[in-house]
Amino acid sequence: MRSQYCGDVNKSHVGQEVTLVGWVNRSRDLGGVVFLDLRDREGIIQVVYDPDLPEVFDVASSLRSEFCVQIKGVVSARPDSQINDKMRTGEIEILGKELTILNSSAPLPINMDKNQHNTEEQRLKYRYLDLRRPEMAERIIFRAKVTSVVRRFLDGNGFLDIETPILTKATPEGARDYLVPSRTYKGQFFALPQSPQLFKQLLMMSGFDRYYQIVKCFRDEDLRADRQPEFTQIDIETSFMSSAQVMDKTEEMMRSLFKELLDVDLGEFPKMTFAEAMRRFGSDKPDLRNPLELIDVADLLTDVDFKVFQGPATDPEGRVAVLCIPGGAKLSRKQLDQYAKYATIYGAKGLAWMKVNELDKGLEGIQSPVLKFLNEDVVKALLERTKAKSGDLILFGADKANIVAEAMGALRIKAGEDFDLLKGDWKPLWVVDFPMFEPTSDGGLHAMHHPFTAPSGMTPEQLEADPTAAISDAYDMVLNGCELGGGSVRIHNSEMQTAVFRILGIEEEEANEKFGFLLEALRYGTPPHAGLAFGLDRIVMLMTGASSIRDVMAFPKTTTAACPLTNAPGFANPEQLVELGISVIESEEEKEVSE
Amino acid sequence: MRSQYCGDVNKSHVGQEVTLVGWVNRSRDLGGVVFLDLRDREGIIQVVYDPDLPEVFDVASSLRSEFCVQIKGVVSARPDSQINDKMRTGEIEILGKELTILNSSAPLPINMDKNQHNTEEQRLKYRYLDLRRPEMAERIIFRAKVTSVVRRFLDGNGFLDIETPILTKATPEGARDYLVPSRTYKGQFFALPQSPQLFKQLLMMSGFDRYYQIVKCFRDEDLRADRQPEFTQIDIETSFMSSAQVMDKTEEMMRSLFKELLDVDLGEFPKMTFAEAMRRFGSDKPDLRNPLELIDVADLLTDVDFKVFQGPATDPEGRVAVLCIPGGAKLSRKQLDQYAKYATIYGAKGLAWMKVNELDKGLEGIQSPVLKFLNEDVVKALLERTKAKSGDLILFGADKANIVAEAMGALRIKAGEDFDLLKGDWKPLWVVDFPMFEPTSDGGLHAMHHPFTAPSGMTPEQLEADPTAAISDAYDMVLNGCELGGGSVRIHNSEMQTAVFRILGIEEEEANEKFGFLLEALRYGTPPHAGLAFGLDRIVMLMTGASSIRDVMAFPKTTTAACPLTNAPGFANPEQLVELGISVIESEEEKEVSE
């Protein structure tokens, strides 16, 4: 029905007759000439109808937005004065000869402009219209290109695309599972996978050696702006490869993705230990575009007569660190209060600050509520260590080390944005050498990655002797402060796996009930294996500059996990529930009504 | 950890040192030399250890099946007498120099031979071992190649891979949905999609123009050998393409798939109408390798004094057709009884037969229980029309037309196999021009394809005036008697869609409740669109010659929809059920126990 896409017509076609199909993006009758902007997925082109062909002109005059039409016409160069640099097809236009309305459109229920002010609910209810908007269509098309490039890379590197089940058993990621009642086994449930973690490990045990899958995963969590109940992972697992080799290969994949689709050369990714990332940036996913760093100053403050500083400075679990913000001294008292309030979200009890108004004036040039507690030597040492300049602001974090990292890490990000400090477009890195375990609030231990992660260079006995000292052979790929993906070398023998379950307080019975098949499988010549999973949605979001994960998915859910388009979820047929052996619990209010 | 895959070592590497990893497929100590068959996903290679290196030899002697090992050695040509033509690596062997056990294996719980006699349950419980068997691994690897070739073809033809939701609303395919309780909307449920049908149509309404997805679909059906609760579709939809264009493009895809992976040239696919397929083959998915055809003979039997023939021969809804089976006259009475019994499965009341023992002896040479009802002219006419030869068997089907088609179609397939009549390896075709509707047992109408299929060349008024006469613009791709996929041109305006719902007896309220969003969407410039879905599992099954769909899936379910590996489904945490607002209905027996 067409000779090419609208967006693909260019100057080389001048003089040719083309047939195009698409939607009326805009149609204006300007002084007896109809200018029709015709849109398809590849772009927009201008078609001009003049009254010389009265029948066609009449049809053209009758067009309204989003009519679906077919046009025939001749490509013509625009006069220089009318060339539109902002359009891919801006150098040409079509002199319309024929026009067929393939389908008309009722008046639209949402605004189709770039600067639409539709509510999120409206956009999702009329998603098929929202997706016609070029900025949305481009993101979905870009996403298809991402998966295509990734698949080509992995296919070309001997990775096998193998499907794992969606109807499966509760997985161990720790979030809430979606359940699916079984009809054959009444009262029992499948779980939708939070990831194919165990299946991909089983595939390594089967000898497939290099696996990948671009696969839906599910978490029944309370949603935040960047979370969706179903999301997509680029899931990878390999046998006989070290963590360094897995990192190299997947880094190569990411580099080729950015090169091919954005013409960006990401270069070699630096590696940074978790400890260094927390020390310098207060985050395990530091945005390296932000030049601010946390500077440790506890050693300068062990003797000051100010408990807020001196306490953490002398506490083995405490930390005192500062951020020096260039130009920050211009913040008002009110703005500083806002920074303090922001820090408390992350657990800080307050926020001490110091304005370096004029560096060469000594204490005179310094303004700070805590100045009275600090003698001149301490202030001088602080200024030297932070390399503060006149006009800078120093913010203090003093608390338990994890609170300082979190609060100062958050302030670092905020200040980086507020003061427009970010440098460079793309700053990837690997964060490595994570602790195996982190303490839980009830005094136990929690696996920092997941319970199948191998420790670096330890026997099961050594691990059990001092679990909190163990470093895992895990790695996260971070870009611009976002975790793109993470993975680890996996445990490949049952003694180590059993030891880890024991350290995590998973009783033998529970371990067997939940992971018995894995422990059994580990007994039959399991190869050393390692892998990683990337969040596809987040990668596409970053690469397209979208502000929400919903803008890179064709049919996302609302933040209450509903679909306004199809009205899912919905009530079930009562007979089907009986077949499934379940019933809906009447809520108290409903009971009252029915009484 | 390796220099190459085991299967990739060949004569060109003779003299080189290689490092390989894999599993002990077999290890034998023959007269003081250990022959180790080492296996990885690409093949098996022989490694030889002699006692010259006593330490290595001792390790080699200790190997048991399925140990995971790393070896180093030098590639050596085998003496001519020891060349093994059946192995890819049969011309060479490795002289082992080093040997590291990466992981040992406990004695195996299943038999790993090619001719294993493990039960299906055992194979699924130890799937990770079952998948190590080369014939299983090869099928899974082949499947990955199929998806890779298909994706490359579709990517190269401008199709966009777009993901549609798994948590969605009940879909209209008519099978039972899997339900997922919503936590946010207690008492409500998502359904897992039986296909992305409506979403792909919505994507056409969004202007994406060419869509594909290799996607999981779900049906909670009672399972048969070739059904699984979750299966995979190659799902395709296009805008602005006619049914002929969709068929051409997807036929090209299938041709390139067979060419690239099997080096088979499928040639151009013939097109056959549904009516012709039913008339000649008694099936809408005829296996064209089978030369047998149903031959209509009602006109010869309108006057015979035998109600069983004469009734259907004169009934406008009846049909009398025969199959002439070359060499079939040798069947014993007992075998003929089995054929008759087989026909009754498909609704036939019995099966009349006629043995053509000696054609040139007239009625003398004919043997048949119904011979007494037929005069010589009728018999002669039957023999002429069927072109029967001495030794042939004629089977009669006389009943309502649909029963004759089904029963004789089934006998055609059975006879084709029993008498080894199949010719050629691959016989594809398109079946087209299906009826829009078929009658239901309660006197209503059912959509033969699905309710979104467009009729060929009819207005909504014409369709409603005589729905049973309507032919749909639908098409099925059939290969060797299997439906590989099917699709149709879709309805793209709401008047036609509403008319079809009305014909199907879907009340306005129900239509709005279930498909209101589709009817609404059809109002805003919906483009003409058409599509198709292929069953990936079945394609892989055919191409690999697997006898069960389970043998082309990594982790299938049993015929009771369970997973013996993970023990899914399982009991849920009671608190989670409360959160979901559902409860398990106690069965009568359980109630008694708890009382």
What would you say this structure looks like, in words?
Two copies of one chain form a homodimer. In chain A, helix 4 packs across helix 15 (536-544) and helix 13 (494-503) runs antiparallel to helix 14 (508-521). The longest helix of chain A is centred in the N-terminal third of the chain and has 23 residues, at 134-156. With 595 residues, chain A is of the alpha+beta class. The first copy, chain A, folds into four domains: 6-103, OB fold (Dihydrolipoamide Acetyltransferase, E2P) (Beta Barrel), CATH 2.40.50; 122-240 and 530-595, Bira Bifunctional Protein, Domain 2 (BirA Bifunctional Protein, domain 2, 2-Layer Sandwich); 290-418, Gyrase A, domain 2, CATH 3.30.1360.30; 428-529, BirA Bifunctional Protein, domain 2 (2-Layer Sandwich), CATH 3.30.930. In chain A, a hairpin with a 5-residue loop joins strand 18 and strand 19 (445-447). Chain A is globular. Helix content of chain A is 30%, strand content 24%. The model of chain A has no long low-confidence stretch (mean pLDDT 94). The first copy, chain A, contains 17 helices and 24 strands. In chain A, the strands form five sheets. In chain A, strands 6-9-10-22-21-20-17-11 form an eight-stranded mixed beta sheet, with helices on both faces. Chains A and B meet through strand 1, helix 3, helix 4, strand 6 and strand 7 of A and strand 1, helix 3, helix 4, strand 6 and strand 7 of B.
